[in-house]
Design goal:
Chain lengths: 150, 103
């Protein structure tokens, strides 16, 4: 083997090395349940705030950003890597679907606030956001692991 | 032997493993890369330096748990080079499989 050529056997061996490295990366998709719940909490906090006056919106936004920062620090410490949810690959349609669902819930929350609904209504919308976000996070992690191990 | 457009910067097995990680994550920490590539600190440093020199990798330092750590990430050129290298490897394997099937 020189630097410009390689036999098919060597190429196969190189691809096996790539597969082994990808299998190690797949471990990142093995999130503990609380990690999915934390992501759900970030999304639901963002949507919860939108159902209330500005002061509550700002408080929810600050809480959500703080929690997001903790998630990033956790991921970097636990896995020694950081993976952007918007990465290219098989997970992108999952991210897009989650984004569309969240945008729809944002619109619903804002419309309901404009109609001055009772206090419990925005909480219900935020709860739906939590469930959707947790489901999306679990789905994303599964798709990521499948992509890394195929 | 079939000559293909392989990238000499990504040819070494350890370097290919480093590149695989960086192609799939935003950034990876030095010790994690060392663990996956199965090389020593000094060997990993050499590989990373070569990839930085080729314009494929960017290194940054940031504190985690009160310690300065080195994080590596791919540049756009690195991602493109890795994708091209992978295509070349897959083409080589595919051509061999076709030759076997034709026999």
């Amino acid at each position: 083997m020189n630097r410009e050529t390689m036999s098919p056997v060597e190429a196969r061996a190189a691809l096996d090395k790539v597969g082994a490295a990808r299998a190690r990366i797949a471990d990142v998709g093995l999130c503990p349940p609380w990690r999915h719940a934390a992501f759900g909490a970030v999304m639901s906090l963002l949507i919860l705030g939108l159902g209330f006056p500005l002061a509550v919106q700002v408080a929810c936004l600050c809480l959500a950003m703080g929690l997001m920062a903790l998630i990033v620090v956790h991921d970097r410490r636990r896995y020694g890597m950081f993976i952007n949810g918007y990465r290219r690959g098989a997970t992108r349609p999952v991210t897009a679907a989650l984004l569309v669902a969240m945008m729809a819930l944002i619109v619903v929350q804002i419309r309901l606030r404009e109609q001055s609904v009772e206090t419990w209504v925005p909480i219900v919308v935020a709860s739906v956001a939590f469930i959707v976000a947790v489901g999306g996070s679990v789905w994303w992690a599964r798709v990521f692991r499948r992509e890394m191990t195929r | 032997m079939t000559p293909v457009a392989l990238d000499p910067q990504l040819h070494a097995p350890a370097r290919l493993q480093i590149a695989t990680v960086l192609a799939n994550v935003d950034s990876a920490e030095f010790s994690r890369l060392r663990e996956i590539a199965g090389v020593s600190d000094s060997v990993l440093s050499k590989h990373l330096s070569a990839l930085v020199e080729a314009g494929y990798v960017r290194l940054t330092k940031s504190a985690l748990d009160g310690r300065q750590r080195t994080w590596a990430s791919f540049t756009r050129a690195g991602r493109q080079a890795f994708a091209a290298h992978m295509r070349a490897l897959q083409a080589l394997v595919a051509s061999a499989e076709q030759a076997i099937a034709a026999e």
